[in-house]
C-alpha cells in the first residue's frame, strides 16, 4: 500500500486497478483470470455457489451458460440450488422417476423427481398415498437443482411438497424479485464504497489508499473524484458500477477507454459492458469520445 | 415460450391484454350460472367453464383469455379458500409489471 501511495502514481493505479476490479467483480473474477483455473477449481468451488435461490420459471428459461458445459447463470451469478413455486400441469410417472410439468404463470419447466425405491418414507408425495404424486393444478413448492440434459434444461427435484396457503405463492414471487434486484443493483446499504459488498471491500480499500496518498502530497482533484464515485453511481446496476469505477481509475481518462480495455479490466463480457455503457450514458455519467465504443467520465 | 406464459394482472391491466391469456387472483363477488364477478382491484366478469367450482366470498385464481369487452373466458380455475391476502396479490401484480425481466415476456 505504501508503495502505491508514494510511488509513481500512474503505474501504481494501473496495477491496483487490475487487482481491484478482479476482486470486486464477485463471481466473475475467475472468468477474467483464466479458464483452466475455473475448470480446475470447479470440483472444489462448486459448493461456494450452492446457496438456495428463489426463482421464477422465466428466469430458469432465460438462464444462460457462459461457454458450453459451464454453469447456468441468472443475473450473472451461477445458479445451482433453486426453489420455485408453480402449478402441476402434467405428470409423467415412470419406474425410476416422475416428471412434473410445472407452470408458475411466467413459464413452464420440467421437474424430475427420482423415485427412491428403498424409502417408502416421509416425502410429501409418498405420504400423499399415490405413487403418481400430486393432483393436477395443485400448487407445489420445489427444492432442487437446475441441470441440463441433452442441452435441455430441467430441474432435478430434491423435495416437492404441496402448498397449503396460497399466499406462499405470492410470497415466493416477491422473494424472487427481491433477490434479483439485490443481485443486479447490489444490497441496500449506505452510499459509500463499502456498499458494493464483500469482494469490493478490498477494492475500495486499495483505491482509497492510493488516492489518500496522492492527496497527502499533491493532487486533491483525484481524491475528490474518487470519493464521489460510489454515490453518483449508487443507483446503477453492479456492472455499471464496476464499469464506472474502472473508468475513474484509468489513467488518461480524457481520451476515453476503449471497449476491449474495459472488458479486460473489469472481467465483464463485451455485451455486459455495452449494456452498462448504455445505462451510464442514459444517466449522463459518461460520454462517448473518439467512437461509439470508447467512453470517458463526464465530469462536472 | 410466450404461449405458455400467463401474466398476472388485475382489472386495471386488462385492456392491454385483450386476446391474450392472463392469470387473475381475486375474490368471487357474485356467482350466477356460468358467469362470475371477480374483484381484483376492480370487478371483472368471468365466463366460467364446466369444470369450475367456485364459491362466492372465497378467493379464486383464474387463467383465461381476455375478451374485447374486457371479460375473461376462463380456461382453468382454482379455488383458493378464504385466507387469501388480496392486497398482497395486487402488490405482486404491480411488482411483476415493474420487473418484467423476472416475470414476463414482452
UniProtKB/TrEMBL annotation, chain A:
Annotated Gly residues bias: 1-13, 21-44
Region: Disordered; residue ranges are 1-51
Q: Assign the protein's first listed, main location to one coarse class.
A: nucleus
Subcellular locations according to the entry: Nucleus
Its GO CC terms are:
chromosome, telomeric region; DNA replication factor A complex; site of double-strand break
Q: Which UniProt keywords apply?
A: DNA replication, DNA-binding, Nucleus
An example GO BP is: nucleotide-excision repair
Q: Where is the Replication protein A C-terminal domain?
A: 197-293
**Keyword DNA-binding annotated:** yes
Which terms in the Gene Ontology molecular function aspect does this entry carry? single-stranded DNA binding
Key word Nucleus present in the record? yes
Protein family according to the UniProt entry: Belongs to the replication factor A protein 2 family.
Provide the protein name. Answer: Replication protein A C-terminal domain-containing protein
Source species taxonomy: Eukaryota, Fungi, Dikarya, Ascomycota, Pezizomycotina
From TrEMBL, chain B:
Q: Name one GO molecular function term.
A: single-stranded DNA binding
Keyword Nucleus, does the record have it? Answer: yes
Which compartments does it reside in? Nucleus
Can you cite an annotated GO cellular component?
A: DNA replication factor A complex
Task: List the keywords (alphabetical).
Answer: Nucleus
The superkingdom of the source organism is Eukaryota
InterPro entries found in the cross-reference section? NA-bd_OB-fold (IPR012340), Rfa2 (IPR013970)
One GO BP annotation is:
double-strand break repair via homologous recombination
Q: Does the keyword Electron transport apply?
A: no
Q: Which family does it belong to?
A: Belongs to the replication factor A protein 3 family.
* PANTHER family linked: REPLICATION PROTEIN A 14 KDA SUBUNIT, REPLICATION PROTEIN A3
Name of the protein: Replication factor A protein 3
Which species?
Answer: Lasiosphaeris hirsuta
Amino acid at each position: 500500500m505504501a508503495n502505491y501511495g508514494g510511488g509513481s502514481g500512474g503505474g501504481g493505479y494501473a496495477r491496483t486497478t487490475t487487482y481491484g476490479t478482479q476482486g470486486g467483480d464477485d463471481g466473475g473474477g475467475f472468468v477474467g483470470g483464466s479458464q483452466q483455473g475455473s475448470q480446475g477449481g470447479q470440483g472444489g468451488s462448486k459448493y461456494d455457489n450452492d446457496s438456495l435461490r428463489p426463482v421464477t420459471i422465466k428466469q430458469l428459461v432465460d438462464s444462460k451458460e457462459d461457454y458450453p458445459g459451464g454453469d447456468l447463470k441468472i443475473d450473472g451469478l451461477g445458479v445451482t440450488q433453486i426453489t420455485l413455486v408453480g402449478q402441476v400441469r402434467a405428470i409423467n410417472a415412470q419406474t425410476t422417476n416422475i416428471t412434473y410439468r410445472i407452470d408458475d404463470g411466467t413459464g413452464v419447466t420440467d421437474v424430475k423427481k427420482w423415485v427412491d425405491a428403498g424409502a417408502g418414507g416421509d416425502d410429501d408425495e409418498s405420504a400423499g398415498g399415490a405413487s403418481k404424486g400430486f393432483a393436477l393444478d395443485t400448487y407445489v413448492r420445489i427444492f432442487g437443482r437446475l441441470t441440463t440434459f441433452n442441452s435441455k434444461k430441467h430441474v432435478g427435484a430434491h423435495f416437492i411438497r404441496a402448498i397449503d396457503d396460497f399466499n406462499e405463492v405470492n410470497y415466493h414471487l416477491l422473494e424472487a424479485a427481491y433477490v434479483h434486484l439485490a443481485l443486479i443493483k447490489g444490497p441496500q446499504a449506505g452510499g459509500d464504497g463499502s456498499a458494493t459488498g464483500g469482494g469490493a471491500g478490498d477494492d475500495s480499500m486499495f483505491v482509497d489508499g492510493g488516492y489518500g496518498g496522492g492527496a497527502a502530497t499533491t493532487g486533491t482533484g483525484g481524491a475528490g473524484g474518487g470519493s464521489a464515485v460510489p454515490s453518483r453511481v449508487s443507483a446503477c446496476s453492479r456492472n455499471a458500477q464496476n464499469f464506472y469505477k474502472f473508468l475513474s481509475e484509468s489513467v488518461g481518462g480524457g481520451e476515453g477507454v476503449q471497449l476491449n480495455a474495459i472488458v479486460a479490466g473489469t472481467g465483464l463480457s463485451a455485451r455486459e459492458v455495452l449494456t452498462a455503457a448504455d445505462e451510464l450514458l442514459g444517466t449522463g455519467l459518461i460520454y462517448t469520445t473518439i467512437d461509439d465504443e470508447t467512453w470517458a467520465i463526464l465530469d462536472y | 415460450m410466450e404461449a405458455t406464459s400467463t401474466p398476472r394482472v388485475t382489472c386495471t391491466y386488462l385492456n392491454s391484454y385483450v386476446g391474450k391469456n392472463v392469470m387473475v387472483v381475486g375474490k368471487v363477488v357474485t356467482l350466477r350460472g356460468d358467469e362470475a364477478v371477480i374483484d381484483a382491484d376492480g370487478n371483472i366478469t368471468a365466463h366460467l367453464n364446466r369444470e369450475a367450482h367456485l364459491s362466492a366470498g372465497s378467493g379464486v385464481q383464474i387463467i383465461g383469455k381476455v375478451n374485447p369487452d374486457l371479460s375473461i373466458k376462463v380456461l382453468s380455475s382454482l379455488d383458493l379458500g378464504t385466507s387469501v391476502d388480496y392486497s398482497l396479490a395486487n402488490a405482486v401484480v404491480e411488482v411483476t409489471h415493474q420487473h418484467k425481466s423476472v416475470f414476463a415476456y414482452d
